[in-house]
Description:
Layout lengths: L5 E2 L1 E8 L3 H10 L3 E3 L8 E2 L5 H14 L10 H5 L3 H44 L7 H5 L5 E7 L13 E6 L4 E8 H13 L3 E2 L10 H32 L2 H17 L4 E2 L3 E8 L5 H10 L4 E3 L11 E2 L10 H5 L12 H15 L3 H14 L9 H15 L20 H29 L3 H20 L6 H20 L3 H23 L1 H23 L3 H35 L26
Antiparallel strand pairs: 1-12, 2-10, 2-11, 3-10, 4-9, 5-7, 5-8, 6-7
Helix pairs in contact: 2-4, 4-7, 11-13, 11-18, 11-19, 12-13, 14-15, 14-17, 14-18, 15-16, 16-17, 18-19
Amino acid sequence: xxxxxxxxxxxxxxxxxxxxxxxxxxxxxxxxxxxxxxxxxxxxxxxxxxxxxxxxxxxxxxxxxxxxxxxxxxxxxxxxxxxxxxxxxxxxxxxxxxxxxxxxxxxxxxxxxxxxxxxxxxxxxxxxxxxxxxxxxxxxxxxxxxxxxxxxxxxxxxxxxxxxxxxxxxxxxxxxxxxxxxxxxxxxxxxxxxxxxxxxxxxxxxxxxxxxxxxxxxxxxxxxxxxxxxxxxxxxxxxxxxxxxxxxxxxxxxxxxxxxxxxxxxxxxxxxxxxxxxxxxxxxxxxxxxxxxxxxxxxxxxxxxxxxxxxxxxxxxxxxxxxxxxxxxxxxxxxxxxxxxxxxxxxxxxxxxxxxxxxxxxxxxxxxxxxxxxxxxxxxxxxxxxxxxxxxxxxxxxxxxxxxxxxxxxxxxxxxxxxxxxxxxxxxxxxxxxxxxxxxxxxxxxxxxxxxxxxxxxxxxxxxxxxxxxxxxxxxxxxxxxxxxxxxxxxxxxxxxxxxxxxxxxxxxxxxxxxxxxxxxxxxxxxxxxxxxxxxxxxxxxxxxxxxxxxxxxxxxxxxxxxxxxxxxxxxxxxxxxxxxxxxxxxxxxxxxxxxxxxxxxxxxxx
Length: 607
C-alpha cells in the first residue's frame, strides 16, 4: 500500500523539427505528458506565429461550423505547413465562404419553410371546432390579410375590434389566427413582434377540406425536403472543390497546437520537447514513439531546480474513484500523504453503517455498475452499495423490512446505545489514523524525531482518554501521554518555554479532537434514523389494510429512502472524511499533474 504520492518525472525529447506536430500528437495520445518549456540555450521558438491566422479561422468557425463536414485532425498534413501556406489556406476558406453564403441562406430559408409547414400540419391535425375554414383564408383578396402566429407563454394581446381572430392550442403552445384589413393587421403585427410571437406563413392555396389540406401540406414537406437535400449536396460538392476537409483538419490541429503547446525551443533542424510525465519508468513513452516510427531521442535527466514537479496520484484502480475526496482539498504535496486507499475503506464503511439495507444497497450497486461509464463519479455507488448490503445483513434489513432475515449483529432500534458507541469507536480509529498520517508526513519531511519526541505523546494521550471509561489503565496512559507531549516539546524547543507553548496548543488541539470524536456519533444517529424511517414505511404499508396497498407503500417508501437518505448520508460521509479525517494531516499544497489533451476533431451539426 503506497500512501506517498509520486512526483512526475522530467523528460526531454530531441526530434526533427518537421516532425514536431506528429510527435506532440503522439505524446498527447499517451495521456501521460505535461509540457513545460525549458532551455538552457538561446533558441528561437519552434512554432511560427499563427495567432492572427487562427483567430480569423475561429471567427469563421463560430459562424459556419454547422455547415462544415466532420473534422478529422491530421497532424501529418500540418507538419510541413508554413505561415505563408496556412495564410493561403485561410484565403481559400474565405473564398469558400463567398460561394457558400448563397447556398447557406437558401438552406436556412428552406429549413424555416419546412418547419413552418410541419407546424401548420400539426395544428391542422390537432385543431378542433375552433379552427375556421382554411379555404376562406386562401381566398382572401387585396383588402383583407391573414396572419398565423405562434405565441410566447402568457402573451397578453390587444386585438383591434375590426380583426377576426381565434386562439388555438397546439402541441408546443398557443397560436393566434387573425383575419382583417391590412392596416389593422400591421398594428397587430407590431404588437406581436414586441411580444416575441413567431409568424408562420399561411399558404394561399389551402383547400377547405382538411384531408386535402393535410395531403397538400405533406407534399410541401416532401418537396422542401428534396430541396434541402439538393442544397446540402451542392454544399458538399462545393466543399470538395475547395478541399474543405483537408483545410479544416489542418486548422483544427494548429488550433490545438497553439492552445496547448508552449513555445518550445528549436534550431533550424531540431526541436526540443520538454516537460513532465506520469510514466515514471518511461516505458509507455518509448513504446508510443517506437510504434509511431517518429524520430526522437528521449531521456530523463534531473528536473530544473526552478520548477516544482507536478504530483501524480498513482492508486490502484479500485481506489482511484476515491481520489475525488482528496482533490476536493487540492493535490497533496510531495511530502504529504495521499489517503485515497484509506478513504476507499473508510468512506464505504461510514456510508454502509448509515445506510444498512440489503435491497437498497443492491439498487445502489446495480446503478453504479450501469452508470459507471457514463458518469464516472457514480462509481462510488459500487463500494457504497456493497457496504450497505453488508451492514444490511448485520442489521437484518431487506427493503426496509426486518422480519424476513435474522440480524447477524443487531437491529438498530433495539440497541440504540450500542449503535452510537460503535460509531464513536469507528471515529476513534479514523482520527487515530489521521494522527498517524501526520507522523508519516513529519518523517518524510525529515522531522520524524521531533514528532516522536512530542506529538506521538498526543496520540497516547488521546487513546488513553477515549479508553479510560472502558479500560482500567486508560487514565494512566493519558497521563503518560500528557507528560510525553509536554516534555518532548521542551526538548524540541530546547527550552522549558516550549512546554508552556505546547500546553496552549494542547488545549486547542484537545478540544478539536473531542469535537471530532463526538461528531462521529452522527454515524450511529443516521443509522438509527434510517432504521426509523424504514419502520415508518412498513407501518404505513400495514396501515393500508390491503396487500396491494402494503406493497405500493413499501415500493414508494423505499424510493423515498433511496433518494432522501442516500443524498443525506452521502453528504455526511463526505463531511466526516474532509473535516474529521483530512484535517489532521492533508493541506493540499501540491501542484496537480495536467496531461496534454489529445487533438480531437469537432463534430459537425450539418448532415
